[in-house]
Every structure is written in structure tokens, then in C-alpha cells.
Design a protein that fits this description.
The protein is α+β, with helices and mostly antiparallel strands and about 220 residues long. It is built from 5 helices and 8 strands. The chain binds aspartic acid. The site of aspartic acid (ASP) has 14 residues, from β4.
Length: about 220
């Protein structure tokens, strides 16, 4: 889209046609449906019918930082049985990058949230919400409940702070505080400035991250 079109955003069948016309191999969407996810959906629907809170992003009660008054049912992270420093929570992957010529880029990929209403669009693909990059400001990718992130246009909010002089380490923490203080939201953020300084923050129970610099590779599960 960036290189072969005058547009910036394609969705639905037109996006598939565009991809196919540029040589991308398409698969049948049914290939993306896993038994594991069907089971998660059934568990989520049973919890919903029983009137239980969805603890996806906030984490189960008793986890440090657990918050009781989220404004929206979260969906995709850390079911109680997986609540250990481990994986299997959900599928959102974000990346931010800076090249040697000062170009910043961001990407966010997600399967969305569990048990969503058909037609629901999340923050991940929305420019300025779950994903944004500007060479004169910063690059950002977010995960978490999309609804509060969208209401706050949080990606742009965070990059504006970096453009205004706040270092990414601080701006990332401020963005997650803002998300929670304004709307009780839970999420995680990676934020990279034009000078290579970066920030990571989350108020979910954990967030896996990786870092590649000229100095080498580092990974972690929390910050
Ligand atoms: N932010 C995504 C959404 O709301 C979900 C996620 O990050 O896992 O669709």
C-alpha cells in the first residue's frame, strides 16, 4: 500500500484484491480458525453468560495492579489458568523500528478481541490509535482493550508527547497512566523516538517484548 498505491488504507474484499493483484498469496480464512480459539471463545461466552468479569487485560483478581472498574469487557490476555510468566495469552504483535536514515516505522498485527460482536473494529489497524509513526515525533504500537485506546487516540497522544520533548521512557508510562486514569483501560505500549531512545510500559499482568540494537538482542516478559 505504501509503495504501490496513492491511498493509505484498504479494508475488506478490496484489500484482498489489492494484495492478490500485487502477487500476495491469499489463504482461506477458515485456515485461521483453531480449535484452541474455539475453546477459548466457548469459555469466554460461558463466563459472560454467568455474569463474570472478563479478566483478559486486567488479569485475575489478586494479581498486583488488578483493577476492578474497567469500562469495557476485556478479551484476549491471561485467562486465570495461564496467569504465570508464560505465553498463550493472546496474539497481538507490535513492532517499532528506526533505520540508519532516521526513518521511523510501526506495525501492529492482531486477531482482535475474544467474543467481540461481528463487525467490531479494534484499535490496532487504526492509524494514530494502536499504531502510528512520524519521523518528526516517534513510532508507537499498542496492545490492550481497543475501545479505550481508540477513544483516546492513544498512539498519537504518546507520539505528540515525544515531539513535545518528553523522553519515550516517560511518555510510554504516561500513556498507560492516561489510559487507566481516563477510562480504566488496560494495555501495553512500545514507543521509539527519532534518537533511538525507547519506552515500554503496560498495566496488564505482563507483556512480552524484544529489543534489537547494535549492541545485541534482549527479551523480557515484563517491565
Ligand atoms: N488491541 C486489540 C483490539 O482491541 C487487541 C489486542 O491488543 O490484543 O482489537
Amino acid at each position: 500500500v505504501l509503495e504501490k498505491s496513492q491511498h493509505v488504507y484498504f479494508v475488506g474484499p478490496g484489500a484482498e484484491q489489492f494484495a492478490a493483484s500485487h502477487g500476495m498469496m491469499l489463504i482461506d480464512n477458515s485456515e485461521l480458525v483453531l480449535d484452541r480459539e474455539r475453546e477459548r471463545l466457548m469459555r469466554a461466552q460461558a463466563r459472560h453468560s454467568a455474569g463474570l468479569a472478563d479478566e483478559t487485560f486486567s488479569g485475575p483478581e489478586g494479581v498486583p495492579g488488578h483493577i476492578l472498574h474497567d469500562d469495557k469487557s476485556p478479551e484476549t490476555a491471561f485467562p486465570a489458568e495461564l496467569d504465570s510468566p508464560g505465553f498463550g495469552s493472546h496474539d497481538t504483535v507490535g513492532a517499532v523500528a528506526l533505520d540508519g536514515r532516521g526513518n521511523l516505522a510501526a506495525a501492529t498485527s492482531t486477531g482482535g478481541t475474544l467474543n467481540k460482536t461481528p463487525g467490531r473494529v479494534g484499535d490496532s489497524s487504526l492509524i494514530g490509535c494502536g499504531c502510528y509513526a512520524d519521523n518528526l515525533a516517534a513510532a508507537v504500537s499498542l496492545t490492550g482493550w481497543g475501545e479505550p485506546i481508540m477513544k483516546l487516540v492513544l498512539g498519537k497522544w504518546a507520539t505528540d508527547r515525544v515531539a513535545g520533548g518528553t523522553v519515550p521512557e516517560i511518555a510510554a508510562r504516561e500513556a498507560i497512566s492516561y489510559l487507566y486514569n481516563r477510562l480504566g483501560g488496560h494495555g501495553g505500549i512500545i514507543l521509539l523516538g527519532p534518537d533511538g531512545r525507547f519506552g515500554l510500559a503496560h498495566n496488564t499482568p505482563a507483556m512480552a517484548w524484544g529489543l534489537a540494537t547494535p549492541g545485541g538482542l534482549q527479551t523480557g516478559l515484563s517491565v
